[in-house]
Specification:
This protein has 245 residues and is α/β, with parallel strands linked by helices. It is built from 9 helices and 10 strands. It folds into 3 domains: 109 residues, Rossmann fold, CATH 3.40.50.20; 87 residues, 2-Layer Sandwich (Dna Ligase, domain 1), CATH 3.30.1490; 39 residues, no CATH class. The strands form 3 sheets. The protein has a 5-stranded parallel sheet, with helices on both faces. Strands 7-6-8 form a 3-stranded antiparallel sheet, with helices on one face. Helix 4 packs antiparallel against helix 5. The two termini are 13 Å apart.
């Protein structure tokens, strides 16, 4: 079991990880930007270090700075939370090279499934039904116009990298497309360091259903089927059972 980990995230995400670590008697190290110096996750952690100015590309996306802090703080592992660097395969490789454990999947899995477009390709090749959409990033506004017209409005613009709804815009008609594309690309770049955006046919009034799969490094696998996005209590209980095993 780890004795000390760094949480490479902020806000409620970091707070949840810190609470779990407290239950497991693991010391925590928080990182924060200038604007987050008085944030709750900073106050909750056992240690906290500044990593730069407010813009995320100057702080929470600075992988080299986060690894430097992790080394200096003497942590054994880095927990990325979600968003920011959590799906950055190169960050995982650099963390591993530094002799620190990354709490999450290996870089190969990230490269295959971390990007929505590459994940769509894998699903299509496996014969899995997917929402109609593209598997390549939009090259221009003209490309976006042509693609959206082919699928028919409404369409959804989605950032290929990251998650959490960032870099995502619903477009109901062509007059909204240009500003939505610009906003999606800008938000994706600021949040994930990657402005690649693709198009999907929008599903009106969808129901969010997830299949949660848990696998440890010792190959213990559990599946929590038909879970909605708020099944955190069941997930927490399952995680505790896996830790005991």
């Amino acid at each position: 079991m780890f004795k000390k980990i760094l949480i490479a995230n902020r806000g409620e995400i970091a707070c949840r990880v810190i609470r779990a670590c407290r239950e497991m008697k693991i010391r925590t190290v928080a990182v924060y930007s200038d604007v987050d110096k008085d944030a709750l996750h900073v106050r909750m952690a056992d240690e906290a270090y500044n990593i730069g100015p407010a813009p995320s590309n100057e702080s929470y996306l600075r992988s080299e700075k986060i690894i430097e802090v992790a080394k200096n703080a003497g942590v054994e592992a880095i927990h990325p939370g979600y968003g920011f660097l959590s799906e950055n395969a190169e960050f995982v490789r650099e963390v591993t090279k530094a002799g620190i454990v990354f709490v999450g999947p290996p870089p190969e899995a990230m490269e295959g499934l971390g990007g929505k477009m590459s994940a769509r390709k894998i699903a299509i090749e496996a014969g899995v039904s997917v929402v109609p959409g593209t598997t390549e990033p939009l090259r221009s506004f003209g490309d976006a116009q042509e693609t959206a017209a082919r699928f028919g409005y409404p369409v959804m613009l989605k950032a290929s990298a990251g998650g959490g709804g960032k870099g995502m815009r619903l477009v109901g008609e062509e007059s909204e497309l240009k500003s939505a594309l610009k906003a999606a690309q800008s938000e994706a770049l600021a949040s994930f360091g990657d402005d690649a955006v693709y198009v999907e046919k929008a599903v009106v009034r969808p129901r969010h259903i997830e299949i949660q799969v848990f696998r440890t490094r010792t190959a213990i696998t559990s599946i929590l089927a038909n879970a909605n996005a708020r099944s955190s209590v069941a997930i927490k209980r399952l995680s505790r059972r896996l830790r005991r095993r």
